[in-house]
Amino acid sequence: MTETKLFPPAGDKAALEAGDVLTPRFGPDGTIACVTVDADSGQVLMVAYMNAESLALTIETGEGWYWSRSRGELWHKGATSGNVQKVVELLTDCDQDALVLRVRVDGAGATCHTGQVSCFYRRAPLGQKAADGPVRLEHVGGERRFDPAEVYGHRH
Amino acid sequence: MTETKLFPPAGDKAALEAGDVLTPRFGPDGTIACVTVDADSGQVLMVAYMNAESLALTIETGEGWYWSRSRGELWHKGATSGNVQKVVELLTDCDQDALVLRVRVDGAGATCHTGQVSCFYRRAPLGQKAADGPVRLEHVGGERRFDPAEVYGHRH
């Protein structure tokens, strides 16, 4: 585990909101939500989670590192697929319980494990009432940038 | 509580990822993460959480509704400040455990309770090593759009 000296304990509300020290508030599972966006287009690419170690590695290396909650392991995004994230800017929110990572994506330029540029490739229409039943999604993601079977084999 | 007939139980991995039915995977606390972005500039405005009721209200009314985890209550964003969110587009991610809301903000056009346009008004510089100690944040949010003391009184 990387030392977490980098992140002092959170202060009071005023320090959290107006202070100039990064004191991320990791949740009960030790992670903080991170929104990763394309630095050029602004498109939201993914929402993932970082623990202290992955956040420290992201800051130190300038590449996107996360904590995979499903696999329970440190995750260097793009290590398998080549779609490594080069970080342009890291932002924290007012109460320091969420991060934004602005990145440029290497390789095929895809972030989603399905081969899509963004994980957010489906739109839910608005205006539907609760009694109307299921909401039908529309695919808005365009063409895949890679074939997951080729890149990941049978793991996905 | 609004009926949740709107959201059937999640199917298997294939249905979640490639299906055309919105089956949001609310977490153990009944909420799902939502990234709210400015529909025009793409700027990330906030990260908040929705329960089934607030998501149903967002879809039905086309305005941003959330579940305030800190206050434990349904939250019509902008009801007090006038900075109501008009939803342009709602997206779900591959495994349906995160949402993106593309909005236009009414009123002063500010989303953060501090008066900033976005909750993400501070940048953490990159390149620092874990042993180097605290990360100093830079303010990148510009001028406040409103004075929280005037808008919220002493509640914030």
TrEMBL record, chains A, B:
User: What pathway does this protein act in?
Assistant: Amino-acid biosynthesis; L-histidine biosynthesis; L-histidine from 5-phospho-alpha-D-ribose 1-diphosphate: step 2/9; Amino-acid biosynthesis; L-histidine biosynthesis; L-histidine from 5-phospho-alpha-D-ribose 1-diphosphate: step 3/9
Q: Which cofactor does it need?
A: Zn(2+); Mg(2+)
Pfam families given in the database record? PRA-CH
Q: Out of the domains of life, which is the source?
A: Bacteria
Q: What is its EC number?
A: 3.5.4.19
Manganese in keyword set:
no
Which GO MF term does the entry hold, naming one?
Answer: phosphoribosyl-AMP cyclohydrolase activity
> If you read the UniProt record, what top EC class would you report for this enzyme, in one word?
hydrolase
Q: Which residues form the Phosphoribosyl-AMP cyclohydrolase domain?
A: 46-121
Question: Any idea which UniProt keywords this protein has?
Answer: Amino-acid biosynthesis, Cytoplasm, Histidine biosynthesis, Hydrolase, Magnesium, Metal-binding, Zinc
Q: Which reaction does it catalyse?
A: 1-(5-phospho-beta-D-ribosyl)-ATP + H2O = 1-(5-phospho-beta-D-ribosyl)-5'-AMP + diphosphate + H(+); 1-(5-phospho-beta-D-ribosyl)-5'-AMP + H2O = 1-(5-phospho-beta-D-ribosyl)-5-[(5-phospho-beta-D-ribosylamino)methylideneamino]imidazole-4-carboxamide
Q: Name one GO biological process term.
A: L-histidine biosynthetic process
The record's subcellular locations are:
Cytoplasm
| InterPro entries xrefs | PRA-CH (IPR026660), PRib_AMP_CycHydrolase_dom (IPR002496), PRib_AMP_CycHydrolase_sf (IPR038019)
Example GO CC term: the record gives:
cytoplasm
Give the Gene3D superfamilies listed for this entry: Phosphoribosyl-AMP cyclohydrolase (3.10.20.810)
Entry binding sites for Zn(2+): C94, C112, C119
The residues that the entry says bind Mg(2+) are D93, D95, D97
Q: What does the note under cofactor report?
A: Binds 1 zinc ion per subunit. Binds 1 Mg(2+) ion per subunit.
Q: Which chain positions lie within coiled-coil regions?
A: none
Give the protein's biological function.
Answer: Catalyzes the hydrolysis of the adenine ring of phosphoribosyl-AMP.
User: What family does the entry list?
Assistant: Belongs to the PRA-CH family. In the N-terminal section; belongs to the PRA-CH family.
Q: How does the record describe its quaternary structure?
A: Homodimer.
What is the recorded name of this protein?
Answer: Phosphoribosyl-AMP cyclohydrolase
To which species is this protein native? Answer: Pleomorphomonas carboxyditropha
